[in-house]
Amino acid sequence: MTSSGGGVFRTTNGGVNWIQQAPAGDYPNKIYMYNSRIGFIGFNAGTPTTKKTTDGGFNWFTVSNEGFTDIHFVDSLTGWKCNVFTIKKTSNGGINWISQSFPTGKNILNGIRRFSILNKDTIWGVGGIKQLGIVNRGMIYRTTNGGNYWLYQVPDTSINIPRYEYSNFVSALKGWSYGVLSGVHTLTGGDSTFYPMVNINQISIEVPIDFKLNQNYPNPFNPTTTISFKIKNSEVVKIKVYNIEGREISIPVNEKLNPGEYQFLFDAGTLSSGVYFYSLIIDEEIMDTKKMILVR
Questions:
Q1: Quick one: how far is CA 117 from the chain centroid?
Q2: Which domains does the chain carry?
Q3: Which among 37, 203, 243, 246 counts the fewest CB atoms within 10 Å?
Q4: Are strands 224-231 and 285-294 parallel, antiparallel or unpaired?
Q5: pLDDT tens digits for 141-198?
C-alpha cells in the first residue's frame, strides 16, 4: 500500500493487501467499526465531523458536525461518543446525538477523553481533573443509567495521577484507568464512595457567627432540592447523605471552603422514594443533621 493523500483503507487478508475506502484528502484521526458493515470515522482537525458507513466502508456520510476522541455502541442503534469536553448519546445509529454534559463543580475541570461500556446502563469514563489545592488529581466517572446521571471518584492512591487518559472495564468490579505513565486497577468497582456532580454556589461572603445547616427546599422533593449551609471559618466541609438505615449513600460536598454561605442543588435521580438524612460535617465533626423526603 502506498498513499500520500490520506484516506481510509481496508484489508480482508491480514494486511497483505489494502483497499482504499475513503477518498484521498480525508484524514480521519479515529476509526471505529461496530461490525463488518457499520462503522464511524472522526475528524477533529479542519472542520470536525463524524462520518458513518453501513456497507463496510465503501460509502461514508456525515452524521455529526463534530469529531470524537472515543466512540462505542452497544447495538446498531445505541451508542455514545465523547470529544474531550462533552459526551453524547444516540438512539438511532448516530443520525442524532443528545448531549449528556457534566455539571461543573467547584475546583473541577470536567472532560471525558475515553470511556468503556459494560452494557446499555453502565459506562466508565476518564479525562476530568479535580483540583485539590495546588495538586491536580485525575477523576474517574461512572454512570449506571446510560449517562443520564454521572458520578465520579478521585482514587485514593499515592500515585496522584493528574489526569487519566484511558479506561477499560471488563466487569462492574474489574477495570483499569491509566494516565500517560501509570495507572490504577480495581477488582472491587473502585472506591466505595462516588461523588455526584454539583454546583456549589457561594451566595454570601458575610462571615456568620456560627456554623448552620438549613432545611432543604422544597421538601418533600422530586428529584432535586436545594441545600444551603453557613461556615464561619475556612474549613474542609462535607455534606453527607444517608438513607433511613443510616447507610452513607452520597457525599455531594467534600472540599475546603472559605467563610460564608453556600448552596447547591442535590439531584436524587438515582434514588428511590423514602426518607433521607443529610449532615454538615466540619473537619470530620458532625455539626448538624436534617431530614428530607423524596417522593416519586
A1: 12
A2: 8-98 (no CATH), 102-196 (no CATH), 201-294 (2.60.40.1930)
A3: 246
A4: unpaired
A5: 998 888 877 888 888 677 789 999 999 999 989 999 999 888 999 999 888 777 776 7
